[in-house]
Amino acid sequence: MKREILNETVIRFPSLSANEGFARSAAASFASQSDPTVQEISEIKTAVSEAVTNAIVHGYRDAVGTVELILRRYSEGTLYIAVKDKGRGIDDIVQAMTPLFTTAADEERSGLGFSVMESFMDKLRVRSAAGRGTTVIMEKKLNRRVK
Amino acid sequence: MIKLYNDGRRITAALSGDIDHHAARRMRAELDDVIARSRPEMLILDLENVGFMDSSGIGLILGRLKAVRQCGGDLMLKNVQPNIAAVIRLSGLSTLLAEGVKA
Fold it and tell me: Under an 8 A CB cutoff, do B83 and A49 touch?
């Protein structure tokens, strides 16, 4: 069965750390159309915060670039979130997704970002090419109460 | 924002607002200053007024735990909210802390 997009928004912002809070609030606000629970909203905010922070800290390590946040509500009750950057990319995705692995220990990055995304969302896909950027796609089912 | 309460060599730092990568940098500097100046026996981070925390907060807490232990002290968390407890549980941080995390 083909799923339909009920609603969609695309937000672009520069990779400034002040936008981490903006991005997760925007995602929470969009997701609220699906009448999620307090816990679901909290999980969505945390997962978006992790993905956007990765784009800012790692994708655009030495420069400011554009981060794109795409949010969709699908007909069967799924929330779709994509976080894209055109930064340096990830050399080894499997290594990057290993819990506690970090390339920025001196900045006290815990290496838990992908673990949080994986645990709080139902689906996580990461596409990346060195020098071309990274796209993180996450989905969460919020179908229990959608009308 | 951080408010400090001093009870001898037990210091409570009441954090407020969101703890993310953006906020953690300033909190890190402020807390390290407190640790260096006061060398607390116990640093208690009160999270009652923290509405949001992601894995940047785990890095912040772990870093302060190391710093305070290097000065011979220890660290505890207080008033951990349920949404924050979920991130802490995932990190395994609880097992490293003086009194674990109750939430």
Answer: no
